[in-house]
Amino acid sequence: MLNITVQKSAVLKQKPADEGKLGFGKLFTDHMFLMDYTAGEGWHDARIVPYAPLPLDPATTVFHYAQEIFEGMKAYRTAEGRVQLFRPECNAARFNDSADRLGMPPIPTEDFVQAVKALVDVERDWVPHSDGASLYIRPFCIATDVGLGVHAAKNYLFVIICSPSGAYYAEGLDPVRIYVEDEYIRAAPGLTGFCKCGGNYAASIKAGEKAEELGFSQVLWLDGVEKKYVEEVGSMNIMFKIDGKIYTAACTGTVLPGVTRRSIIELLKDWGYEVIEGPLAIADVMKAADEGKLEEVFGTGTAAVISPVKELDWEGKAAMIGGGKIGPLTQKLYDTLTGIQWGRLPDTKGWVVPVE
Ligand code: COI
């Protein structure tokens, strides 16, 4: 149990007048959570303070060797005015898996969740009221040693910031076009593909830019060894409905184990779908499209929620999906997941955690 001190900001920011125009991750709330780690002492000085720049020495190791991890979560406001989180303990567990791979200290799950709840409680008024908008929560941790030697730091800073946000993609729930990246790779066995670390995203940016220049929303990554099997999209996991069955890459070290991904798999299995977590060759996806068997494709993610895909382009060939429209299963998954998150549907699985 953390002892969290709270220092309220003397001046509060103006809340956004039009929640329909929030975009994603552009505005930040009045406060942030900070906690320090010192080797030998552990985590200490948990505090909520006014949102402000972090003063860091230019030789701070995170700037040089990218010892950094993060999480993405949301707080939702129900029609009755309750504020709730979605499976925050899953984010805490993944955070600690990322920490372990990057040689960083873990944070006990209950402390991680307590910190998120405490900050959201202080920022309660920032949780949007409109449909589809929520308070995006970004916990992250950086190495704060000063010096240029490459080794695990002895000092870290854990930070949580919040951003009232709408849809991640400008398209909203309109289907997106995805470019299958066949030059660069995102992950390979033994590397950090399963972690949420800034370095993974840094390495993905060039491919994302190329895809955007070509008119696509994101890239679909293939496996890093053979460049043959589908893995994930830049900011979400991806699932394919082929001939009635759902296929998605297994989380065997190179794919981010998404909280939305696992929730969707649970829902699909409850509904009687066969879900195959394993290697799926991009050539087989394109073949299924040619044969009229590629019924639906959608991404899953905290930021992306459920994001329908209308086109996949690979080696100059295009697979068109669902006549450019969201498929019925994708829509049902979106409605069910967001129904639970926003409290419109009963939470029969115990996924929702109230912020009281
Ligand atoms: C999320 O879905 O929360 C993410 O962190 C993806 C992203 C915006 C990089």
UniProtKB/TrEMBL annotation:
It is an enzyme of class 2 (transferase). It catalyses: L-leucine + 2-oxoglutarate = 4-methyl-2-oxopentanoate + L-glutamate; L-isoleucine + 2-oxoglutarate = (S)-3-methyl-2-oxopentanoate + L-glutamate; L-valine + 2-oxoglutarate = 3-methyl-2-oxobutanoate + L-glutamate. Its cofactor is pyridoxal 5'-phosphate. SUPFAM superfamilies: D-aminoacid aminotransferase-like PLP-dependent enzymes. Its EC number is 2.6.1.42. Pfam families: Aminotran_4. Pathway: Amino-acid biosynthesis; L-leucine biosynthesis; L-leucine from 3-methyl-2-oxobutanoate: step 4/4; Amino-acid biosynthesis; L-isoleucine biosynthesis; L-isoleucine from 2-oxobutanoate: step 4/4; Amino-acid biosynthesis; L-valine biosynthesis; L-valine from pyruvate: step 4/4. One of its GO terms (biological process) is branched-chain amino acid biosynthetic process. InterPro entries: Aminotrans_IV, Aminotransferase-like, B_amino_transII, BCAT-like_C, BCAT-like_N, BCAT_family. The modification N6-(pyridoxal phosphate)lysine is found at K196. One of its GO terms (molecular function) is branched-chain-amino-acid transaminase activity. It comes from the Bacteria. Keywords: Amino-acid biosynthesis, Aminotransferase, Branched-chain amino acid biosynthesis, Pyridoxal phosphate, Transferase. NCBIfam families: ilvE_II, PRK13357.1. Belongs to the class-IV pyridoxal-phosphate-dependent aminotransferase family. This is branched-chain-amino-acid transaminase. The lineage of its organism: Bacteria, Bacillati, Bacillota, Clostridia, Eubacteriales.
